[in-house]
Amino acid sequence: MHHTLVVTVDNQPDALQRVAGLLRRKNFGVQSLTVAATEDPGTSRLTVVVDSRTSSPRLVTENLYKLIAVRRVADLAEEPGVARELVLLRVRAGSATRAEVLQLAQLQGARVVEVSPASLVLEMSATSVDIARLVALLRPFGILAMTRSGALALPAAAPEEWEDALAPALLSTNGASFIEPLAEREGV
Questions:
Q1: Distance separating alpha carbons of residues 122 and 115, to the nearest angstrom
Q2: Beta strands in the chain (DSSP E)
Q3: Considering only CA atoms, which of 50, 61, 46 is closest in space to residue 6?
Q4: pLDDT tens, 66-94?
Q5: Do residues 123 and 87 make contact, with C-beta atoms less than 8 angstroms apart?
Q6: How confident is the prediction for the chain on average, in pLDDT?
Q7: 9: closest CA among 34, 31, 42?
Q8: pTM (2 decimals)?
Q9: What are the Cα distances from residue 56, in Å, to 7, 91, 172?
């Protein structure tokens, strides 16, 4: 089983090296590691997918917090979140099979980004399971090249964020609320 850890770090030149070095030194079973900019120019977000059969996500998290640059670690197995991966595939698609490849791509949510006489390049942003399904369906046609980004992930918005954001929008024209107030739900 895989665990997705979302690690927010200070945007320092050596932050990625420190995290990667820690993961290597401790021999954690890392399946993928991606780094991306965030909404805050002072931080970066790393998404680390670890194999929980060989590495305890709790142990990985505890070790990450020992690094000075690490601000927050979220385990998406313990809190809700969204994870996606990007794949680019060059698939053999001559005139005899092009329509079928296009139909499969469309049904799976992939889109065409390049067309040549003998092949198509497809891109898809989805869960790793959905990407694996697309790859399996296209393999019989001939995958000429493929690259996957590794997971990118974000923890879900906190419930109180939704309460604050949705409450005004959910009021009817006569002032009645479609959601019960938080205090009533919690028996306060």
A1: 9
A2: 2-10, 30-37, 43-51, 70-75, 81-92, 111-115, 119-126, 143-155
A3: 46
A4: 998 999 999 998 888 899 999 999 999 99
A5: yes
A6: 86
A7: 42
A8: 0.73
A9: 16, 37, 48
